[in-house]
Every structure is written in C-alpha cells, then in structure tokens.
Design a protein that fits this description.
The complex is a heterodimer of chains A (about 130) and B (about 350).
Chain A lengths: L1 H19 L21 E3 L9 H5 L5 E5 L5 E5 L9 H5 L5 E3 L15 E5 L1 H4 L1
Antiparallel strand pairs in A: 1-4, 2-3, 3-5
Chain B lengths: L3 E5 L11 E7 L2 E8 L7 H6 L3 H9 L6 H16 L5 H29 L3 H22 L8 E2 L2 E2 L5 H27 L1 H7 L7 H7 L3 H5 L7 H4 L20 H25 L16 E9 L2 E9 L5 E7 L1 H13 L7 H7 L4 H5 L1
The chains are: A alpha+beta (about 130), B alpha+beta (about 350).
C-alpha cells in the first residue's frame, strides 16, 4: 500500500510538470524576468562623475581606466569584457555616477577592442 | 587476478571538476588508488597579497562557485577582527541567512549529483529544480545568482525590506515541502538504499586520524559543527541542531546532508524572525593595523579555515585558506580500497568534493 501511495505521488509530480510546462525561458523570444537588484549591465552618468578615480582604485578586475592629465582633463574608459559585475564601483562611487541595471550584458568576439568611453571631460575634448 | 591500473580524470564524465585518480583494480574489486591534484590551482593566495583588502573580497568569492559566500564571510570577519570592529547585528544576521541558503543549495546540488550517479535521474531533476528556489532568493536579494557579492568589509551590501522577507518566507515554505518529499524518497526508496547502504564505511577513528570535517565526519558519528562549537556571530544566539548518524557509509552521508538541509531551512526562518533592526554596514579604514588572525567558519562541506596577516598596509601580507575538501581528499584512496568498481561513483559523489576550493 505504502509503495502504491509513493507511486501516486510521483505520478502527481509528473502530471503537474506536464501541465506547468517547461521551467526554462526561450530567450530572447521569451521574457526573462530579472530581479530589480540584479547586477547586470553597468549604466554611467557622466554629469555626476568628478574624475576622482575611486572606482578605478577599487575595481578588482581592472575593468576601469582613468587617463588623467589634470583635475579638469581626464578620460574614464570601461572594458566590459574584463568586468566581473561585482558592483564594487557602484559602492565606491561617492557621487552615484555608476549603477547596475537589470539589463543583460552584450557579447563580443573581440574582447580587447570592446572599450566604452564613460566620460571624456570637457577640457580633454577641447 | 592481475592488477590493472585505470586512470580516472582529470577530464572524466564522472567528475565535475578536474581531479586525476589512478585506480588499481583486480577484476571487479578495487585495490586502492592514488590522487593527483592541482588542475584548478589559480594562485589565489598569492594574488591576494597583491591586491587591496577591498578588491580581495571579490577575489576570495571566486575561490568556489558553490560556497562563495562563506569564503567571503570568513575573510571579512578576519579583516574586521584585525580592524577591531564589530559589524551591526543586522548585517551579521543577513550574512548568516546567506550562509544557510548557500548550505541548502549546496546540499541539494550534491543530492542531485549523488542521485544521478546511482541512476535516479528523476531525483536529480527534482533536486536541481528545487535548488533553483534557493538560488532565486539569493539572486533577488543580492543581485547575483552564484557570485552574490553580499559581503563587504564592515557589513553587507544590501538590506532586506518587508517585501523581501515575505518573498523569502513564501519560497522557503514551498522549498520545505519539496525537501521533505525528496528526503522521504532518498531515505526510503529501495533502489537508493541498495546503492548506498554499507558502501565505503568510514570509522570515527579514521575521521579523527585524517582530520575529516563537516557532514562526512558527522555521518560517522563524530559530533562536530563549528556553528555550535565555535560560533561566529550570530550563531551564538541561534540554536543549531547538529545532525549526526553512526552509520559512516554512503547512506549515512546522504541522510546527514538531507537532514541538514531541513535544519538550515528552519534556521533561515528563525533568522528572519529574529532579524534585528539597524544599519547593515559600517565605514571602515582602508589600511588594516598590523597583526594576525585566524577565523574558522562552517562551510557546507565542513570547517573552513582562514589565516590573515597584516603588515599595516592596505594589502594583506599573507592569506592562507584551508578548505574542508582537503581532508576528505586524503581519505579518498583509503575509501576506494576493497569496494566494487561500480561503487566508485557512489564513493566519489558521496563525499561531496570541491576541487576548486581545495586547489585554489
């Protein structure tokens, strides 16, 4: 009897799984519900950046690079292929210029050439 | 009968991580075996000396893909001990919550692997599905499914609001009933029992001689658990039920881990109930005063040991990690002796090895 009951439980689980359908999402055709706090693609707000370099100092993956000639003249570069998406830059930035979004990160076949200019200060543009 | 030596690994379908074994067999009997390690050595301890304490949190997290949080927890407690600070109680509780969730997902992952090796593919599918629930909670609250980046020196990096707590409670309740069903199957299913009962028993004396820790030791009746014996906060305020079994065989190891999953589920609920109010992190200086410290934490596989020495700069002078798998590995050749060839997967899966942890 016990054994029979157990078989019924397993049968129940099978029927449930059949009704529920697959657990996986057919990405990119299906909707991937990522949580709000997901550490995905990094967003940058150049207006808030002061060029202090705290994010560069704390980045464990060397994904950020600050080329600084003077206080006013600097460029902040970001290498997405090196990034570990740990969120340390977001923590280190006192001005809230860097934040993680819950969007997925893109892909590349040339990871060394994938460089984004986060900020080019006005002085260095001139 | 002639002795034949067969190599298993470093790349082998049986192994999830690279480990090389030379197994001596005579007919169907295994005579013994020898190990070769170091295939996933990444030089993390040396690398840690070249990076700042802040950067190291993320480096340490990458020692292991399963128990990543407990590594950073031990490391952060070590740095905080050198700094002479105590983190806010709320942060301690959130760290413990993550540790317990990690134990749940680690044990469920292992249960699935064992089930797969003994031919119960359905159980494998179900445990891995249920494990996703624990991972979902961690992803939701910390932002990362495997690399949670929950710890920082001085506390944790996120806070839990009411919405989070309700969500966690809901999932835990569901997980509880799922785990109960799984445990019931694994403990009573005749096929599972036949494959694991009496396989590769380890005596308590052997456990002590080889310094084996964690669930493997507890499954041989050795009553050790750092969460109770030398608790890091907040375990000193939580009552941890230590699960032991005198069996010592592969079945006892299954039983202990399955029961521990239930204990961890209860602990998670208790942590949420007792969660204190307040801040979750403190501001800490970047330079750490001179000194050395030893921290021990109970990882899902047993005692995790961290030694940290500071020379007063912003980088560690020495970091030494000892993982529980190291002791289990030393016992593996002994366990392999006198078993059947068909039981090799049960022995290997039964002790729950983490090679990435051991090699670092």
């Amino acid at each position: 009897m016990e054994k029979f009951k157990k078989r019924l439980t397993i049968l129940n689980a099978v029927i449930e799984a059949l009704i529920k359908g697959p657990e996986t999402v057919k990405y990119p055709f299906g909707d991937l519900a990522l949580p709000e706090g997901y550490r995905g693609k990094i967003e940058f707000d150049p207006d808030k950046c002061s060029g202090c370099g705290l994010c560069v100092r704390d980045c464990p993956a060397d994904a950020l690079q600050l080329n600084k000639k003077s206080r006013e003249e600097y460029t902040l570069l970001y290498y997405p292929a090196r990034c570990a998406y740990c969120g340390q830059c977001e923590d280190s930035c006192h001005h809230g210029a860097i934040s993680h979004s819950n969007n997925l990160v893109g892909a590349t076949t040339h990871k060394d050439d994938w460089v984004l200019v986060f900020k080019e200060s006005k002085a260095s543009q001139e | 009968m002639d002795k034949i030596s067969i190599p298993i690994g470093p790349q082998h379908p049986l192994l999830k991580e690279p480990l090389s074994m030379m197994v001596d067999i005579a007919g169907e009997k295994v005579l013994g075996g020898s190990l070769r390690l170091g295939y996933v050595h990444r030089g993390i301890e040396r690398l840690a000396q070249q990076r700042t304490y802040v950067q190291n949190v993320h480096l340490i997290e990458r020692i292991c893909g399963i128990c990543s949080h407990v590594h950073t927890t031990a490391y952060c407690y070590a740095v905080e001990a050198l700094l002479g600070i105590e983190i806010p109680p709320r942060a301690q509780y959130i760290r413990a919550l993550m540790c317990e969730l990690e134990r749940i997902h680690s044990h469920l992952l292992w249960l699935g692997i064992l089930a797969k090796h003994i031919g119960l593919e359905t159980i494998f599918m179900h445990t891995w599905h249920d494990r996703e629930m624990a991972l979902d909670i961690m992803e939701e609250i910390s932002g990362g499914r495997v690399s949670h980046a929950a710890n920082q020196i001085g506390g944790v990096r996120f806070d839990l609001d009411e919405e989070h707590i309700d969500m966690i409670r809901g999932i835990l309740k569901k997980l509880h009933s799922q785990v109960d069903g799984l445990v019931d199957i694994i403990e009573t299913e005749p096929a599972a029992m036949a494959r694991t009962k009496g396989v590769a028993p380890i005596s308590p004396d052997m456990i002590k001689a080889y310094g084996v820790v964690g669930p493997v030791a507890r499954a041989s009746g050795v009553d050790i658990d750092l969460r109770r014996d030398a608790p890091l906060p907040p375990y000193d305020q939580l009552e941890v039920k230590v699960v032991t079994h005198p069996g010592g065989d592969a079945w006892a190891r299954t039983f202990v881990r399955a029961e521990e999953t239930r204990v961890s589920l209860n602990l998670c609920e208790k942590i949420l109930e007792d969660l204190p109010e307040g801040d979750v992190s403190l501001r800490t200086p970047r330079r750490v005063p001179e000194g050395e410290v030893i921290i021990r934490a109970e990882a899902p596989r047993g005692e995790l040991f961290y030694y940290l020495r500071s020379d007063g700069s912003d980088k560690p002078a020495r970091l030494k990690v000892r993982t529980p798998t190291l002791a289990t590995l030393s016992l593996l050749p002994v366990q392999l002796a006198e078993i059947n060839v068909a039981d090799i997967p049960v022995v290997l899966a039964g002790v729950d090895l983490c090679i990435a942890c051991a090699d670092r």
